């Protein structure tokens, strides 16, 4: 009727900690652990292997934020003196293998500073239609690579042109802090629109059903979430995560039971509910709450009928099938 899932961690954090600033939210996420490794049955509940950790840079992606207008402008391509595009700067993280899995080794920013033009060449074309002197066109060479040429003149079945070779400059940085000092445009606060007041969490199984909101710079799990989600995973045919899954994930976080959030952590769910009776009580209440609420909605019950069913579950409330 439910299981803990690492993609629900952000929603579960807001459920139990409403009103977090983005800095507080990020710190809460970084304090959680979920693992790709398989923990042993004898391992302590707070153990984790090959942990996947949240980083401050992930928060806008988790929230599904759009790029800011300033960053969108920064990412627009420019043209050089010949009218050839200069692509905007790009940033990438270079990873290395460690004993604990992949870890960031360095951060690189590559800038397209110029375009070098080669000697004049003649290239065969199938048609001269829509090809004009002064434009850049692309050919595929013998290695199936795209090669651009600046067209000088066009004949019936050939062109004269110069090969375009991008001139790139790459800078490496040991930390995000070093990167931001030189390229503040890549700061999450600069890249993304944190003024957004509502959005959907970005994850696979039913992420669009889990809604967050921001009020006066503080984040909450939007109440509309509970009108969207099912009782739990596999309860409905759409394979969406639901309320019981959210509660189990919140309890795993509250008890620092990272083993439950490891790969195949569901194998230890029964042990977890035995080891933490207060978590079991909250989970059982979640199952009762979600199923009775959805049943009442499906049956079209009034509030009075719903409350009577909740208070006197054996009273035999009769509701006609819709």
Number of helices: 11
The side-by-side strand order for the widest beta sheet comes to 5-6-9-8-7
Total number of distinct structural domains: 2
Instruction: List unreliable stretches of 5+ residues.
Output: none
One letter per element, helices H and strands E, the order comes to HHEEHHEEEEEEEHHEEEHHHHH
Shape: elongated
Compute the gyration radius: what is it? 28 Å
Number of strands: 12
Which structural class should the secondary elements be placed in?
alpha+beta
Strand content: 25-35%
What can be said about the biggest beta sheet? Answer: 5 strands, antiparallel
Helical content class: 25-40%
Average pLDDT number: 87
How far do the termini sit from each other? 25 Å
Structural features, described:
This protein has 322 residues and is of the alpha+beta class. The protein contains 11 helices and 12 strands. The protein has 2 domains: 6-66 and 192-311, no CATH class; 71-186, no CATH class. Helices cover 29% and strands 26% of the residues. The strands form 4 sheets. It has a 5-stranded antiparallel beta sheet. A 3-stranded antiparallel beta sheet has the order 10-11-12. Strands 1-2 form a two-stranded antiparallel ribbon. A hairpin with a 3-residue loop joins strand 8 and strand 9. Helix 1 crosses helix 8 (243-254). It is elongated and about 90 Å long. The two termini are 25 Å apart. The mean pLDDT is 87.
């Amino acid at each position: 009727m439910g299981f803990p899932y690492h993609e629900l961690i952000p929603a579960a954090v807001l459920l139990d900690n409403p009103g977090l600033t983005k800095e507080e939210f990020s710190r809460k996420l970084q304090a959680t652990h979920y693992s790709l490794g398989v923990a042993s049955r004898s391992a302590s509940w707070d153990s984790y292997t090959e942990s996947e950790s949240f980083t401050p840079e992930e928060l806008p992606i988790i929230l599904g934020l759009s790029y800011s207008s300033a960053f969108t402008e920064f990412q627009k391509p420019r043209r050089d003196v010949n009218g050839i595009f200069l692509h905007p700067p790009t940033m990438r993280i270079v990873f290395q293998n460690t004993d604990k899995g992949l870890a960031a080794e360095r951060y690189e920013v590559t800038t397209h500073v110029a375009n070098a033009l080669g000697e004049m060449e003649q290239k065969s074309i199938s048609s001269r239609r829509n090809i004009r002197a002064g434009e850049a066109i692309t050919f595929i060479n013998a290695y199936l690579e795209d090669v651009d040429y600046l067209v000088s003149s066009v004949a019936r079945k050939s062109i004269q042109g110069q090969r375009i070779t991008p001139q790139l400059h790459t800078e490496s940085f040991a930390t995000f802090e070093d990167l931001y000092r030189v390229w503040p445009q890549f700061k999450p606060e600069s890249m993304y629109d944190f003024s957004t007041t509502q959005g959907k969490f970005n994850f696979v199984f039913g992420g669009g059903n889990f809604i967050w909101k921001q009020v006066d710079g503080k984040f909450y799990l939007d109440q509309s979430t509970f009108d969207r989600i099912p009782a739990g995973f596999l309860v409905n045919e759409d394979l969406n995560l639901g309320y019981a899954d959210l509660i189990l994930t919140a309890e795993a976080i509250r008890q620092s039971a990272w083993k439950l959030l490891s790969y195949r952590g569901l194998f230890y769910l029964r042990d977890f509910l035995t080891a933490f009776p207060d978590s079991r009580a909250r989970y059982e209440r979640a199952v009762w709450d979600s199923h009775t609420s959805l049943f009442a909605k499906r049956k079209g019950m009034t509030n009075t009928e719903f409350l009577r069913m909740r208070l006197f579950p054996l009273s035999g409330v009769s509701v006609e099938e819709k």
